[in-house]
């Protein structure tokens, strides 16, 4: 049975003290109320080591929001996958549309990042999704397929076990405009079908696929009720502990 998951993406929000306070809040809210899914918070690099301390012994996993496409060396300002792993983090988000859009991350660059993250023992939450224009042209399936083919479909079956996919239509990220549960389900079913073509039906059934894009406390229940939606990658709402907990609790219904 594939894992259900709710993962928070804090993006470039919260100073260190506020990040530690939020992580403490998330941990405490789940201490006596076990979640029915995996819960992960993905934080800026500088928060990782401190948040890892906070989360020690709790059910909450930890991830970074990015890592370098190089192993190590003279790459000023970069943070390697090995460094991320050494903080105690278990996950890294790669392929987020904000990284592709604002930082020019291509399929090739992301392919390198994914390989390095896996090599250093991180699980990858790999994001894909189309722009509004691409959806209006009905090209969303081709776009998502190309993103997966370009950066993760080169992986071996063994490596694939450490991949979580997140479908995040760009037009729904931070816009308050969620994909309908039918639109999200249709895309996730399509993604599962192409994973099946590549890695076989059993591997596809075991692959956790998340929806992301303005997922919140009021729409999570309807989204998670769909058979192919295994949870959410949550941006804005993951900064509000009550809302994040309510999304996690959507798995209890
Ligand atoms: C995201 O950026 O991964 C995301 C889903 O953001 P939001 O929930 O704010 O739309």
Question: Which short descriptors sum up this protein?
Answer:
253 residues; alpha/beta; TIM Barrel; eight-stranded parallel barrel; 15% strand
- Mean pLDDT equals 97
What is the name of the CATH topology? TIM Barrel
What is the overall shape?
globular
Please identify, by name, the CATH architecture. Alpha-Beta Barrel
Spans of 5+ residues with little confidence (pLDDT < 50)?
Answer: none
Fraction of residues in H or I helices: 40-55%
Compute the number of strand runs.
Answer: 8
What gyration radius follows from the Cα positions, in whole Å?
17 Å
GO molecular function: triose-phosphate isomerase activity
EC number: 5.3.1.1
Pathway: Carbohydrate degradation; glycolysis; D-glyceraldehyde 3-phosphate from glycerone phosphate: step 1/1; Carbohydrate biosynthesis; gluconeogenesis
Catalytic activity: D-glyceraldehyde 3-phosphate = dihydroxyacetone phosphate
Task: Explain what this protein looks like in three dimensions.
It holds the Pfam family TIM. Belongs to the triosephosphate isomerase family. This is Triosephosphate isomerase. GO terms for molecular function: triose-phosphate isomerase activity. With about 250 residues, this protein is of the alpha/beta class. The protein has a single domain (about 5-250), classed as TIM Barrel (Alpha-Beta Barrel). It is built from 12 helices and 8 strands. The chain has an 8-stranded parallel beta barrel, surrounded by 6 helices. It is globular and about 45 Å long. The chain starts with a strand and ends with a helix. The chain binds phosphoenolpyruvate. Phosphoenolpyruvate binds next to β8.
């Amino acid at each position: 049975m594939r894992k259900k998951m709710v993962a928070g993406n804090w993006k470039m929000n919260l100073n260190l003290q506020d990040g530690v306070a939020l992580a403490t809040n998330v941990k405490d809210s789940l201490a006596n109320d076990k979640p029915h899914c995996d819960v992960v918070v993905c934080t800026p690099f500088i928060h990782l080591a401190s948040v890892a301390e906070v989360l020690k012994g709790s059910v909450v996993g930890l991830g970074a929001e990015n890592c370098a496409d190089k192993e190590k060396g003279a790459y000023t300002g970069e943070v390697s996958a090995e460094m991320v792993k050494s903080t105690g983090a278990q996950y890294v988000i790669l392929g987020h549309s904000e990284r592709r859009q604002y930082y020019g991350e291509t399929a090739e660059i992301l392919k390198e990042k994914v390989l390095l993250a896996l090599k250093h023992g991180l699980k990858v939450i790999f994001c894909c999704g189309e722009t509004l224009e691409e959806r209006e042209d009905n090209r969303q399936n081709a776009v998502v397929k190309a993103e997966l083919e370009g950066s993760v479909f080169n992986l071996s079956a063994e490596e694939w076990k450490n991949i979580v996919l997140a479908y995040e239509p760009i037009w729904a990220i931070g816009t308050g405009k969620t994909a309908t549960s039918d639109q999200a389900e249709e895309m996730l079913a399509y993604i599962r079908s192409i994973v099946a073509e590549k890695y076989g039906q059993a591997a596809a059934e075991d692959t956790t696929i998340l929806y992301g894009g303005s997922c919140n406390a009021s729409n999570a229940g309807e989204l998670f009720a769909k058979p192919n939606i295994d949870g959410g990658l949550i941006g804005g709402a993951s900064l509000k502990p009550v809302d994040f907990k309510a999304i996690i609790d959507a798995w209890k219904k």
